[in-house]
UniProtKB/TrEMBL annotation:
Transmembrane parts of this sequence: none
PANTHER family membership: BLR5716 PROTEIN, DUF427 DOMAIN PROTEIN (AFU_ORTHOLOGUE AFUA_3G02220)
Lineage: Bacteria, Pseudomonadati, Pseudomonadota, Alphaproteobacteria, Rhodobacterales
Protein name (record): DUF427 domain-containing protein
Domain of life: Bacteria
Domain DUF427: 15-105
One of the Pfam families matching this protein, by short name: NTP_transf_9
Length: 113
């Protein structure tokens, strides 16, 4: 499993938007690469407007990162179900993403500005 997960600081300033609202902006985001999958940006929780996120009951299990907890995003235009996730207790090798949140880029806009 060593080397399958790679985590490093995401260069620049990253933002996440949904339904016309800015959910967060960060210069401390992390980029996680898992095998051959496209990189995922993880935002520090303190850089996210958590008032827009409601914890959902949905969970998934990753053999490399552990159990993911999901969030619905609630904006003026409606609710985007299970659009964000985090690992509250990541497995060894993925510890750096603890206290970070990632977003499905096909449901919200995640971009480097």
């Amino acid at each position: 499993m060593t080397g399958y997960i790679k985590i490093h600081k995401a260069e620049g300033t990253w933002t996440v938007r949904a339904g016309g609202a800015v959910l967060g902006e960060s210069t401390a985001a992390l980029e996680l690469t898992e095998g051959d999958l496209a990189p995922t940006i993880y935002f520090p929780r303190e850089d996210i407007a958590m008032a827009f996120l409601d914890a959902s009951d949905y969970r998934t299990q990753c053999p490399h990162k552990g159990e993911a907890s999901y969030f619905d995003i609630v904006v003026k235009s409606g609710t985007i179900g299970n659009a964000a996730w985090s690992y509250e207790a990541p497995l060894p090798g993925a510890e750096r993403i603890k206290d970070h949140i990632a977003f499905y880029s096909d449901l919200v806009m995640v971009e480097r500005i």
